[in-house]
Design goal:
Blueprint lengths: L1 E2 L6 H11 L11 H4 L18 H8 L3 E6 L4 E3 L6 E3 H7 L3 E7 L17 E2 L6 E4 L9 H4 L4 E5 L10 H14 L4 E4 L10 E4 L14 E3 L4 H10 L11 E4 L23 H10 L19 E4 L9 E3 L17 E5 L12 H8 L12 H6 L3 H7 L4 H6 L2 H11 L7
Parallel strand pairs: 1-12, 2-5, 2-8, 5-7, 8-9, 9-12
Antiparallel strand pairs: 3-4, 6-7, 10-11, 13-15, 14-15
Helix pairs in contact: 6-7
Length: 414
Amino acid sequence: MMFLPSIKSTFLLWFFVLIACGNQGKKSNSTKENRDLATQNPKKSTLIIAANRIPDYLPLLKGKKVGIVANQTSVIFKNNTNDYTHLVDSLISHAIQIKTVFSPEHGFRGKADAGEKVKDGIDTKTGLPIISLYGKNKKPSKEQIQGLDILVFDIQDVGVRFYTYIATLQLVMEACAENNIPILVLDRPNPNAHYIDGPTMEAKHTNFLGMTEIPLVYGMTIGEYAQMINTEGWLANSVKVDLTVIPLKNWTHTSTYNLPIRPSPNLPNATAIALYPSLGLFEGTNINAGRGTEFQFQRYGASFLDSTQYSFKFWPRPNFGSKTPKENGKKCYGKDLSSIKTMNEVTLKWLIDAYNNAYDQKDVFLKNGFTKHAGTEKLQQEIEAKKTEEKIKETWKPAIEKFKKIRKKYLLYV
């Protein structure tokens, strides 16, 4: 794997600090869902994302036929404003020959519902063909990447195992390895990189919501994670890809980073992203976790929870990102968590609370769905057995410690 060093020239360093620390884009009249996210303050940070390090990766693309895995977060920020340029537009302006754009779950523009199949198409702005990796196939076929000289991957992740962008990364790397195509990963901060927690995926349950045996929250950037799955032989048949990672500058695992662009339709702000590891487990249940409201992953509730135990209620309705929310139109009793700003662990207290207050506890868990999210059958069994959160989390520790030893080898940042 190639790992590019920091910019040596002091002049270039300060030049790119100035151009890189702006925020959300040229679409400053953009939709409410993007404005809801707090933007990076350039006066408080000199963070430089990999996409902004143009001189470091442009030479790797010149004169080549390029494929790009991208979505609405694949942008280059401009100087001290809310302006940005999409990576695809930037590369075209630099005369890079882009042949194909591959889009992950939610599509190239990031508007499809969770789980909604995304069709192939044409980008209306550039005329480039878009191949969906969340439609007929989740892994690029030989025919789809044939003729490419290199593939670029640039997508904002949130550091949660069942957030499917890392599964897309793994399958793209696999396809590239099998067809001798190098891959270039442009790194972005992980807003949940400051801790490692949650149940570890068991090998027998691996699926698109967790393709490797890692904890629910794994504390790595997408560039670090790419290095790990490549070197540890986690690609099919232990193949390895020619991987180059362009790193971040001036970022650590404890740095605060509020995403300036909504990474998917139902993660509207920093609170939702912080709560997602814990409330995302509700996706494997019949309980609504805020989809169909303006507070996705900031509340939970259901019509079949004991109304005498909850003062908070809400009614899910179809909206942006959720055409058919759970408990659609029903009065849901539950809890509002929107005042929580940060999280340093995966907590089970809300899931246990909801289970214990269900009128019929057989209504809570989805068959197979919860195991796919948790990565293990044990968690549902432990909750049903009325084990405490403390006792359950104690069982996670051995696997987490084992993972930490592997993870340590691939960290690019303090």
